[in-house]
Amino acid sequence: MKKTFERRAVAAVLACCCAAPVWAQEGSAPTGSTQVASDALAPAVDGSAFSDAAPADSGLIPEDERYALHGQSTYVWQRKPSFASPYEGENSLQGKKAKSYSFTATVDLGLRLWEGAEFHVNGEGARGQAFSGLHGLGGLTNGELAKTAGADMVYYRARTFLRQTWGLGGGREAVEGDMNQLTGGQDKRRVVLTVGTVSMLDIFDSLESAHDPRTQFLNWSFLTHGSFDYAADSRGYTSGAALEYIDDGWAVRAGRFMMPKESNGLPLDTRLGKHYGDQIEFEKQYQAGNRPGTARIIGFRNKTRMADFGEAIAAGRAAGTAPELDNVRREHAKVGVGIGFDQSVTDDVNAFMRASWSDGKTETYAFTEIDRAVSAGVVVKGTQWSRPYDTVGAAVAVNALSRTHRGYLAAGGIGPFLGDGALNYGVEQIAETYYSWRPFKYFWLTGDAQYIRNPGYNRDRGPAKVFSVRLHTQF
C-alpha cells in the first residue's frame, strides 16, 4: 500500500507540474502556489504579476493555511566530452565522452495541527544515470543525482517531520507558502523545533544564491560547504531533531541527526546516543555599504565507526598491499568548521562566499571527498535586459584533501568516490556558469556549463568539461 500511495503521489506531482505553465498564462494559479516574497509584486515579462500575494515586508499578514499540497519535478541532462586520461582506476572519472541524466519528482502534503505546529510528509521518485557511477570527482557535477541513482524509477518517503514554532514577540512577519512551508504569519522572535526525517540542508547553511541544485548551481561544491560531511543517508536524508532561536537580525541553531550504518549507505544508525552527527550554527545579519548581508559560521562533529587514513596506510604497508578502509574501521570522531556570507551588491546582484575545513583524518562518511574548500560566486537577475525573473550565475570553487587523505589515494587506496590507482596531487578547481530562463512562475529552463581542472585532485587528468540542460517545474 505504501508503494502504491507514493507512486500515485509522484504521478500527481508530474501531472500538476506539467500543467503549471498553463496556470501561469491564464493567471489562475492554484491556491497556495509558491514564490519567494521578493517576487510577489514584481512585474512579469508581459506586464502581469506572477503572484498576488503580499510580500513579507508589506505589513500584511496572510491567514494561516490549514493544509497545502506542493510539488516539483526536475530533469537534468548532462554531456561530458572526452578529456585526457592516461590511466584509470576503479573509481576514476572515465576520460571517454559520456552522457548523464537525472529525474526527480516530489510531492509535499503539509498540515497545520495546532497553533505553531506544521506536519509535512514528502513522497519522492527518482531515477538517473551518473558519469562513471558517480565517481572520480570531489565536486560532482549534478546535485540532483543521489548515490543510489539507477535507471529504474524508485519511490520512497523523503521527509516526514513536525515543526513547532513558539512565538516570542518582536513584531509579526509574513510566511509565504512553499515546499515544506505553509502560508501564514510568525513572530520575528521565535523558537523553532524540528523533529523527524529531513535534509540537513533544510535547516543549516541556507545561503540564498547557492543552495538548491533544482534552480541554482548544479555542482556539489556549491550546495553547501564542501567539507561539511553532514549526516545523511545515500539519498541525502536523515532523522533527528534541531532547535533554533531566531531573533530580528540573528539566529542560533543546533541539531543531532543519525549517521548511516555504513559509509555512504542507505540504512540509518538509530543509536543516537552512540553514533550521531552534531552541528551548531550562528547567523548574523549586517550592513555593508548600506547593503544587507548575512554571515554564518557552522561547526560539526560526527561520531561513528570510521576508518582512519593513516591507520589504513600503515596496515597496507605491513601487508605489502594497497591500503583498504574496510580493515581499520573503529570508533572515531570527525570535526569541521565552515563560514559563509550572503551579500547583496545591488537590488539585482547577490554574491556569496564559503570556506570550510575538516580534520581530514577519517574517511568521508556521508557527503563527498573534500577536506578543505573555498567557493564564491555571483547571481544576477535579468532586470537590466527586461527579463526580471531570469537569472545568470557564475561561481568558482577550489577543493583540497588533507595530507593523509591524499597519501591514502596515492598508495592506491579506494574511497567512496575517488581512486585512480595513483595520484599526482593537485587541488581540484571548478568553474560553473548558468543562465536560467523563467517565462512562467512555475517553469525554469536552464543552460549550464562546468569546467574542472585536476578532476579527482589528479594533475595527470583533465581538464573535464560538462554541459547541462535543466528543466524544473513546481506548484
TrEMBL record:
Gene Ontology CC: one annotated term: membrane
Keywords (A to Z) from UniProt: Signal
Keyword Cell membrane tagged: no
A single MF term (Gene Ontology): porin activity
Superkingdom of this protein's organism: Bacteria
Similarity annotation: Belongs to the OprB family.
Protein name as catalogued: Porin
Organism name: Pigmentiphaga litoralis
